[in-house]
Amino acid sequence: MTVDAPALDPPGTRPSGGRRKGRTPSTVDGRTVPERLLDHARILFAEKGFEGTSVQDVVAAAGVTKGAMYHYFNSKDDLLYEIYGTVLRMQMERLETFIAQEAPVEERLRAASADVVVTALENVESVAVFFRSLHLLSVDKQAEVRRERRRYHEAYRGLIIEGQRTGLFREDISPDLAVDYFFGCVHHAPVWWHADGPLSPGEIGDTFSRLFLDSLTAR
C-alpha cells in the first residue's frame, strides 16, 4: 500500500530543518509515515550511501508517495539530519534528567556517562550512518548539528565543573579537554562494537564511565 500526502500543515508550522511540525501523523503497520521514512532511509543510507540513495528509493521502500515525504521532510538532507537528531534529542532529555536529580555529582556524572554510551550503541546504525555522511549535508545543517552537540557537551561539562568546585574532581584537568577525551571514546565505539560481540552496551557504558570517573576523582 502506498500512502499519499495528508492535508498541508497550517502556515508557520514548517521549520527550516528536520521534521516539519503539524498535526500528529497517522500510523501504518504500527509506525507513523515519518518513522517509516526514517527507518528505510537509515537502511538505504547504510547499504547504498547517502549520495547513492535517491528520494525515490526511500519513498518506494517506505511505501509512500513523494508528496507524503515532502509533507514531513523538506529534503533528503532532512532525513539524514533527523536520523541523528532523534537520537541526540533523546540523549539531551536524558542528560537533563540526570543533571536535575538530587544525588551527589559523581553519581549523576557516572549515570550520564554510562547512558550516553548505551544510547549511542543501542542506536549504532543511526549514529554510524550520520557521521559517515555528515560532510555531505549543507553548511547550515552541519552548523545546526554542531550547535545541538555543543549544547549537550556544555551541559555535560557543567557536571565536571560542579565536581571540581566541590573538591570531588581534580582541578588540574581542563573540563573542556575532559569532555573532548570522553566523547572521542564514545564516538569511536560504534566503529569497533558489534551487537553480537562479547560486551553489551550496558557493560561498555559501565566500564567507560568508571574509567572516566576514576581519572577525574581527586586523590
UniProtKB/TrEMBL annotation:
Gene3D superfamilies (alphabetical): Homeodomain-like, Tetracycline Repressor, domain 2
Organism: Nostocoides japonicum T1-X7
InterPro entries, sorted: DNA-bd_HTH_TetR-type_CS, Homeodomain-like_sf, HTH-type_TetR-like_transc_reg, HTH_TetR, KstR2_TetR_C, Tet_transcr_reg_TetR-rel_C_sf
Protein name, entry field: Putative tetR transcriptional regulator
Chain segments annotated as transmembrane: none
Record GO terms (molecular function): DNA-binding transcription factor activity; transcription cis-regulatory region binding
Pfam families xref list: TetR_C_24, TetR_N
Domain HTH tetR-type: 31-91
SUPFAM superfamilies attached to this UniProt entry: Homeodomain-like, Tetracyclin repressor-like, C-terminal domain
Keywords (A to Z) from UniProt: DNA-binding, Repressor, Transcription, Transcription regulation
DNA bind region: 54-73
Annotated PANTHER family: HTH-TYPE TRANSCRIPTIONAL REGULATOR RUTR, HTH-TYPE TRANSCRIPTIONAL REPRESSOR KSTR2
Annotated stretches, region: Disordered: 1-31
